[in-house]
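Q: Given only this backbone (83 positions), what sequence would you predict?
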């Protein structure tokens, strides 16, 4: 499995051979749809964080992080309101 983070958009997914192409397609598709809604300031970060989860402890730590991460949005460096 893998945890993907972009500010506060987090997912746990199963990795396969086409993982990078899947992420690129996801970013391209969502960017186009968001820009069609006149949100031209939207941009994905250049890369992504990926981590292979090898045991239950690691899974629980990452799952808890993903679950709680949106609560930190007010203080996030990418939140224009926190600047």
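A: Predicted residues:
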């Amino acid at each position: 499995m893998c945890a993907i983070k972009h500010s506060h958009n987090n997912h746990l997914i199963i990795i396969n051979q086409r993982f990078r192409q899947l992420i690129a397609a996801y970013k391209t598709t969502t960017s186009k749809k968001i820009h069609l809604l006149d949100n031209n300031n939207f941009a994905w970060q250049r890369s992504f964080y990926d981590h292979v989860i090898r045991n239950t402890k690691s899974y629980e730590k990452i799952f808890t992080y993903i679950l709680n991460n949106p609560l930190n949005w007010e203080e996030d460096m990418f939140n224009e309101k926190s600047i």
